[in-house]
């Protein structure tokens, strides 16, 4: 299968970000969830992992569902009271500017926002305070303000959920909502018509609107091509809501859903949990290889994706200099990379009143297991009963103990010691510095 067809997928990781899966699929982009960004330390490392792929020639949209208020995902951004409150007070453009600035600084180039669904008294809880207003004119106006705010920092916006999820009484994550009082010229859909020229991404709703089409909107040629493309003259990309949501599979098989989505006018399949739903991509590959999908149609979609990437995707981001500083500060006496060493690590703790090392050291074991999944990790307090046979990587804080092993590599996080063994000095205990130390150990840094 043509490797570029990976651009027709957008993937997310509900647990740990997995660089290998990204390399395997070569998707249009990745969505980061709270588990990938439990704090700013972890987010910085995952952002470096993504941009290290940019260094290799990958070009990825990087997004999250940080809408403000009810749905906020990214750390280090002040909480917003939410869209309904901002829509009422008229602070939406300011929020868009602030969110765009913070997203750009942290390495994002896209956001799955704004929600332009209209709120109703009977709306599903999944809509809630995510809407700007109960009045579609207010939603339209405030969404426009939000887009103007985001545009200052060239963050790609995503209108959702086309043609309007507000009238749905059910949550499409769990069941298929059916909206019987929705027509082709409904006020809710007019918002998308008004804003179609202002965005490059529109996300579909997994909702059925029988008065317009007997097919769910995500799979509807009537909605995606006849109305959105032709009637509204939309030139951007159509991305699905998450494909694993239960609303999508009430009447169709996996193959039917994939085929109908692309033929209806959809461009990018979103898989929110790729590790548990990799089978969607495997099914897609099989369909391409067996001639079950129109390859020329897919190629045209890939061209559109690549063209829009040129507007937003950059090789670096404003605060990446901190990662470069962490990498370039490292000194070492390392003879060769290691494959599956044992690791000795200290107990997480602050080293003084003028110190916050515990925040980094608490992640140490996890980042080692992510980068060296076959290796064993031991706490320093366990070392006296250990008799290592081969290679040991020993993270040293304030004191050094003798280690019995054929090869010992010392990582001096704070205090330096004269040793005859191999060593690495990062001049830092920050997680981003540890990340680069681990790359060096794997042979991906400069030896």
UniProtKB/TrEMBL annotation:
Ranges for domain Beta-N-acetylglucosaminidase C-terminal: 341-439
**What are the record keywords, sorted?**
Coiled coil, Glycosidase, Hydrolase
InterPro entries found in the cross-reference section: GH (IPR017853), Glyco_hydro_3_N (IPR001764), Glyco_hydro_3_N_sf (IPR036962), NagA_C (IPR049018), NagZ_Beta-hexosaminidase (IPR050226)
Q: Where is the Glycoside hydrolase family 3 N-terminal domain?
A: 15-307
Q: Does the keyword Hydrolase apply?
A: yes
Listed SUPFAM superfamilies: (Trans)glycosidases (SSF51445)
Task: Describe the family membership recorded for this protein in Swiss-Prot or TrEMBL.
Answer: Belongs to the glycosyl hydrolase 3 family.
The protein here is known as beta-N-acetylhexosaminidase
Please tell me the species this chain comes from.
Answer: Thermosipho ferrireducens
